[in-house]
Design a protein that fits this description.
alpha+beta; about 400 residues; Immunoglobulin-like; binds copper (II) ion; Helix Hairpins; five-stranded mixed beta sheet
Length: about 400
């Protein structure tokens, strides 16, 4: 047991013990007085006035007890609030209905991994409503509040696994907002923290783009930066401005080589002539690899992969399963194109879960309520069209 746990347990036991003793004392005295001052023995009430000894006793003794309670409470409170300066820091994000832990090296997890016998300080916040981080084993409980940072700290102690609970009611699946603190021996923790979640191998071409600074000005995911995106660039139609005026060209191999080696000779319309020439800095070999990369396209993404990430990050999977089991909402498994009975304006209607219906279910869920479910889904009207299409693609992959 750590020092903090000792202090808190002492405060608890002292306050509880004193209260219990006083309760017994008062009960016994009450019973005794019931007998002693019964009206059959004292038909007429007597007026008793002043008793210095009694008054001093019932002032001084309770004062001492209250001061002692305060003292134990205060030392326990101080122990909880004063995190050692060398504490390991972990960021905690609470959301309906899960916990996310972010470690100093950027790794994230949904269960808290910590090394044994180490002070750990958690800096916490919430993205939606108020939750409360509660680990009974460490005697810590603290609200997590949107837009605000709160913290707890504890000494992790010996290797062991403890429960984490949410102690603030936060909606229908509040009772499922559970996680664990997993205390590992230092070597095991070091091994865990230094392994990547999913080692992603980066194609060589992306390394070339990175090393030459291309990615400071060009994206490969469709985003506009200073220059046009390199996503789907091969054979794209481009309007360029040359010394002889505007013309539309196809971005074939010859064009791309020229655009990279001698960018000022033809400028993409609506962009500035600010790309440096790479004729001398980029080897023929690397240039060839880049062209090959533009031709074959960006690294293939598994269908639905993007949507799966969105569903996770937006918290959809807190309410919708992907394996057919029932949570708060219907499962995403086999959801697309099935027949649904929904309630619209108080009337039951049958319809097909085509993409139009699914889009409206995400953007304005109040319009159709699936029969047998609560109207508890929040509207996701802030999602971009692209994100919604990625979700639909993902749902399509969840059909048998
Ligand atoms: Cu909660």
């Amino acid at each position: 047991m750590t020092d903090t746990i000792n202090k808190i347990d002492t405060a608890f036991l002292f306050i509880f013990g004193v209260s219990f003793a006083i309760m017994i004392l008062i009960t016994l005295v009450a019973i005794y007085f019931l007998y002693k001052y019964h009206h059959t023995k004292h038909p007429e009430a007597a007026q008793i006035e002043g008793n210095l000894i009694a008054e001093l006793t019932w002032t001084i003794i309770p004062s001492i007890i209250v001061i002692a309670m305060f003292w134990f409470g205060w030392t326990g409170y101080k122990a909880l609030r004063d995190a050692p300066a060398d504490s390991m820091l972990v960021d905690v994000t609470a959301r309906m209905w899960s916990w996310k832990f972010t470690y100093p090296n950027g790794k994230t997890s949904s269960e808290l991994y910590v090394p044994a016998n180490t002070p750990v300080k958690l800096n916490m916040t919430s993205v939606d409503v108020i939750h409360s981080f509660y680990v009974p084993a460490y005697r810590v409980k603290m609200d997590t509040v949107p837009g605000m940072q709160t913290y707890v700290w504890f000494d992790t102690g010996e290797p062991e696994t403890y429960e984490i609970l949410c102690a603030e009611y936060c909606g229908v699946r509040h009772s499922f907002m559970l996680s664990k603190v997993i205390v590992l021996p230092q070597e095991e923790y070091d091994a865990w923290i230094s392994t990547e979640e999913k080692p992603v191998e980066q194609p060589e071409a992306i390394t070339i783009l990175e090393n030459n600074g291309c990615l400071d000005c060009h994206s490969i995911d469709g985003t506009e930066l200073v220059g046009p995106t390199l996503k789907d660039i091969y054979n794209r139609e481009t309007v360029i401005v040359t010394a002889d005026g505007e013309k539309t060209v196809k971005a074939d191999e010859a064009y791309l080589i020229k655009a990279i080696n001698d960018p000022s000779s033809e400028i993409v319309k609506n962009y500035e002539d600010m790309m440096p020439p790479f004729a001398e800095d980029l080897s023929k070999e690397d240039l060839g690899k880049l062209i090959e990369f533009f031709k074959t396209g960006m690294p293939a993404e598994k269908p639905g992969e993007k949507g799966a990430v969105i569903a996770e990050n937006e918290g959809c999977t807190g309410c919708h399963s992907t394996d057919g089991s029932e949570l708060v909402g219907p499962s995403f498994k086999n959801m697309m194109d099935r027949d649904v009975i929904a309630i619209k304006d108080g009337k039951k209607i049958q319809l097909k879960a085509d993409s139009r219906y699914i889009i409206s279910s995400i953007v304005s869920p109040g319009e159709y309520i699936v029969d047998g479910y609560d109207e508890s889904m929040p509207p996701y009207d802030y999602l971009e069209d692209e994100q919604i299409m990625a979700l639909i693609e993902y749902f399509n992959t969840l059909k048998d």
